[in-house]
Amino acid sequence: MRSLEMLLVVVNIVLVFWILFAKNKPQRSLLLGFGVSAVILLVHGILDGMRWPMIPAYLMSALPLLIVAVRSLRSAKNKEQIGRKSLLVKRILLTALAVICSASAVALPLLLPVFAFEKPAGPYKIGTVAYDWTDNERDEILTPDTNGKRRLMVQIWYPADAKAKGKTQAYHSDIDVFAEGYSQMLNFPKLLFHSIGYVKTHAIENAAMSDKEASYPVLLFSHGLTGNKMQNTFQVEHLVSQGYIVVGIDHTYSSTASIFPDGHVAPLKMPDITSIAVLDHANKQWVEDARFVLDQVEELAANDPEQRFTGRMDMNHVGMFGHSFGGATSMQALMTDSRIKAALNMDGALYGELRIPEEGLNKPFMMMSADSSVESLNSPSEDSPIDMMKEVLPRYDHVTKGGNYWMILNKTTHLSFTDMVLFSPLFQLMQGRDVREGLNLINEYSQDFFDHYLRQQPFRLIEQHIGEYPEFTILQD
């Protein structure tokens, strides 16, 4: 709950119960109470923006004015005709209504909060810029248009100048579009996702790039199937604040939604998953997306028309990370693209056309998994077109070969690696641990991995914590 929302709710609850139980309620005091509440409501509307979970609190603001209006219409004679029994019933009903309204005013904005990202821990501010890139060499296979080419929205975050100021990037540019995608993805009413439209990031749009370092290593980010390039903002902002350039890809028609500068919206098209072969084949398009985006990034690094990235991207030190299907994409891209030097897969089942050789990948790789996901891999699949234990689990046999790492986080779920656990405190109840502590753990270990392999810094955490610990287990052959 935001500060002004909390203030409004507290003031209105106090006001309502004063009205119910105070013996003397002068009209002047009622009007004063309404005035205070109305001012807070007005400031909240201007600074924060009004949202539907606050409706009970908004209605409570009008109560003193309503009482004044009723008093003016009711004569003293009518008041005398009301019996004590009727007054008691009326008092009980109004008290019950006040309790329900107060509970709703507290619960709704708490369950559907406008959450805030933690301030990035690194020394750099964060700048961001978006690109609309079309791969004219590839047809768009996810639409009926036979003439369409593969078009991608890409977001680049980068270390910004310490004095950079400007408009901060919204988490989602058009919440109505994204609420529809989230609704389709999670099978919840879209109304539940509208509060996300008020979430802000720490990224400053079109900020000047930091001159602290001559160039910065580059990381590609691939979201999960039905996710989007913003879904790991908690992690992207942390890595950028530590001196990385992060390139986020929206895999068009497989993302929550893609909104292009010309207003075109590419909605989520849920795939028809009938077998593991369907996902293996679909992953090929995502790997090609990553290859194309990396081609475009190389062009920016060589000659950016806006001169922001020219000579500032360290293309000799490129890594990739992703969640779920994007995590699988990261591993496949690591195996097929020599430009990618290290990859991190966050809870992505190992879909794709290539398998890890018996001797390992021969390139730095780290697998992060939720304990619940590992449990699913080791359990028979029911009512699913894919038998995880028979068809997917064997693909993990050589994950740690060659000195690579598999980190299993305790008390986590598939969504624990994304911003979505911040959407509602209900996720924390489902998970059984502090979700922000979990996100911080992911940040620390992902940074340690890339710092070692892309910046040649000694390990601070991973090598020091091989084995079982209360919060996680790290496996290595």
Automatic annotation (TrEMBL):
It comes from Paenibacillus pinisoli. GO terms for biological process: lipid catabolic process. GO terms for molecular function: 1-alkyl-2-acetylglycerophosphocholine esterase activity. InterPro entries: AB_hydrolase_fold (IPR029058). Keywords: Hydrolase, Lipid degradation, Lipid metabolism, Membrane, Transmembrane, Transmembrane helix. This is Acetylhydrolase. Gene3D superfamilies: alpha/beta hydrolase (3.40.50.1820). The chain crosses the membrane at residues 6-22, 29-47, 53-71, 92-116. It holds the Pfam family PAF-AH_p_II.
